[in-house]
Amino acid sequence: MIEALLSALVQLSSPDRLAYMALGVAIGYAIGVLPALGGLAGLSLVLPFIYGLDQVAALAMLTGLVAVAATADTYSSILMGIPGSSASQATILDGFPMARRGEAARALSASFIASMIGGLVGAIILSCAVLVARPLILALGTAELFMLAVLGLSMVGVLAGRSFGKGLVACGLGLALGTIGSAPATAEYRLDFGTLYLSDGLPLPVLVLAIFALPEIVDLARGGGTISKTAELGKGWIAGLRDIARHWWLLLRTSTIGSLLGAIPGLGGSVTDWIVYGHAVQTEKNGQFGKGDVRGVIAVEASNNAREGGALVPTLFFGIPSSGSMAVFLGGMTLIGIEAGPQLVGERLDLTYAIIWSLAIANVMGTALCFVTSPLIARLTTIRFGLIAPFMVMIVCFGAFNTSRDAADLYLLLAVGVLGLFMRRFGWPRPPFVVGFVLAQPMETYLYQAVQFYGWGFVERPGVLIIAAMIAVFVFVGARQRRLADTDDESEKRGQARPQAIFALVPVVIFAAVLLDATKHSFLGAVFPAMVAGAMLVISIPIVLKLFFAKDPGSLLHDGEEGSDESQGGFWTYLFWFAGLILGSALVGFLLASIVFFLAFLRVAAKCSWTKTLVLTAIANGGLVAVANVLVLDFPSGLLQSMIDLPWPLR
User: b vs e for 354-363, b when ≥16 Cβ sit within 10 Å of the residue's Cβ?
Assistant: First the structure.
């Protein structure tokens, strides 16, 4: 154990791997600063670029990003009163009032140190979990691993949404799309429509970028205006450090609670921060919580970073992602050839400790970066949203294309992006979708192996029965509580039932197509997709009927566009902007289309002067060309390039 711990530190200490960790820290920091994005969007952005990296370097980069995004999202919560992510909502209650009193520096200082210590506590708990998890995991067979995956799906699918049915259907939709491509047991091609692109299944990075990043960018662009009207932080950096020393017991308690809650799949940051905040309110005396009490900031921020260490426990050791970001992290591990589960506490224990060291070191690096750059970030908050959006769209499209370097990546990005936009609008939780997609292939593999090893009698194994009982409990509790993690909790945004019913037909059609396709394959190639599609049809059809015909569909009815301000552009306006970039790329190639997109968007949507438009367009696309040149990456070509032989980078 000690040997593996030291070996991991030696591997991680090489300059190139530390550089990749620093890059992950920088990306996580940049993503965390932007409101509402969080580590999920950051992870989805870097997935296409970890191909070719050695495993330790890639893990260091991913872990660094996850660790620091949870620290940097404090900025917008404290300085602007806007949640930096779903896990920093409670920070606003005390952080923003402190900033309005001129104590922004004190609040930021306390939050940064609390985040760092919380992250270190999470790393310690993760390392201790290795001792407990190892004998437990090695005793698990493929039957139990299959049921653990089902357990993760049931909790995430139910607890991530305010509607029980929508959460399950979102999970099933991810599972159904995850069956596209070659069957693990028989290598039969399913729903590939005779195309080489779909023969290996849908690429995870493209799907994650589309389902998470694009909807957030559209909302960001539609927001208009600036993030904040002032860049003043005030004084109090030392006062924040004193607060940490004074409330050390609260810090350790909430860090431990956050880490333990993070290890429970489905109990995301949006739930954890309120549980921890409630604990602080109940246990601390003479509090002014909600009016600018620094203890509220310390409690929430410590638990947020500690939660990441806890969330890695089921992700690494059981292959069960405990949140949407952990699902993407798990997907990243798959991309670099690492399979979560027993091997990470066996022959690959050094990789587990590499993640633990990365988590600890990245938290220290991120905290230092936050302290140094706080005055600058306060000034950046005065930049208009409209100037940020085109840069993010460009990065998303370029990253998606470099997943497989096929133009179909961009078309898939657009198609799934539209799906993600409507899921967000109509209150369909997206984390269960990506969790289902990530776990589809491992679940099918474990099911196939369990049947091969034990026969269908595997359902009678004691471990399987115990996990099945746990699934029943979590489904029952989740169905009653109707927790909300990904969508707005605004009951008045109900909207009209007809458009929502029409959208609800989309998963029904997909499930029907999967079930119909399953009839064309052998038993082993068809059993898993048929089970998923059949079960989901039973759940999804009543949802459609209720939306079409019920007088009051209840929690199923939700439209985020209800009562929205159209002055900054409607829902469809920014969707057409993005679609225009994809269409332009198909016609004249990505680089030329990107230049035109920047010129048009900045001039028309952002209403910039010609001078600013030209300068920003040159900076963005010039930087993109420089990155492509260094990394030896290509741009998507279009119809123009097929007709005319153009020099790089235009070809």
Answer: bbbbbbbbbb
Angle, helices 294-318/324-335, rounded to nearest 10 degrees: 40
Beta-bridge partners for 103: 234
Taking each helix axis as running N to C, give the angle between helix 164-178 and helix 431-454, from 0 to 180 degrees, rounded to the nearest 10.
60
Range in 7-11, 202-206, 209-213, 496-500 the model is least confident about: 209-213
Residue 434 has pLDDT above 50, yes or no: yes
- Centre a 10 Å sphere on the Cβ of residue 492 and count the other Cβ atoms it contains: 7
> 362 near 21, Cβ under 8 Å?
yes
82, HSE (Cβ side, Cα atoms, 13 Å): 17
pLDDT of residue 557: 81
Task: Evaluate whether 268 touches 485 at the Cβ level (below 8 Å).
Answer: yes
- The pLDDT confidence band at residue 508, using thresholds 50, 70 and 90, is very high
Q: Would you put residue 471 in left (φ > 0), alpha (ψ -120 to 50) or beta?
A: alpha
Tell me if the bond preceding 649 is cis, omega within 30° of 0.
Answer: yes
581 pLDDT band, cuts 50/70/90, is very high
DSSP at 49 = G
- Residue 232 tokens read as 């003043």
The helix (run of H) or strand (run of E) holding residue 276 is helix 269-283
Q: What are phi and psi of 298, to 5 degrees?
A: -60, -45
**Class of residue 509 by CB neighbours under 10 A (exposed 0-12, middle 13-18, buried 19+):** exposed
Structure token pair of residue 552:
């009051």
pLDDT of residue 483: 43
Counted residue by residue, the chain has a size of: 651
CA distance 524 to 136: 29
**Any residues with CB less than 8 A from the CB of 12 and at least 6 apart, and which?**
18, 21, 56, 60, 354, 357, 358, 361
Calpha distance 42→393 (Å, rounded):
13
Domain boundaries, the chain: 2-140+229-382, 147-205+430-556, 566-643
pLDDT band at 35 (very low <50, low <70, confident <90, very high): low
Say whether pLDDT at 159 is over 50.
Answer: no
| pLDDT for 161 | 54
- Asked whether the beta carbons of 334 and 319 are under 8 A apart, the reply is no
CA distance linking residue 172 with residue 153, whole number of Å: 9
- Say whether pTM exceeds 0.85: no
Between the CA of residue 427 and those of 89, 163, 274, 485, 490, what are the distances in Å? 19, 8, 21, 10, 10
For 241, 252, 309, 381, the CA distances from 257, given in Å and listed in that order, are: 22, 9, 12, 32
User: Burial of 195 by CB count in 10 Å (0-12 exposed, 13-18 middle, 19+ buried)?
Assistant: exposed
Collapsing DSSP to helix, strand or coil, 384 comes out as: strand
- The sign of the torsion formed by the CA atoms of 286, 117, 329, 218 equals positive
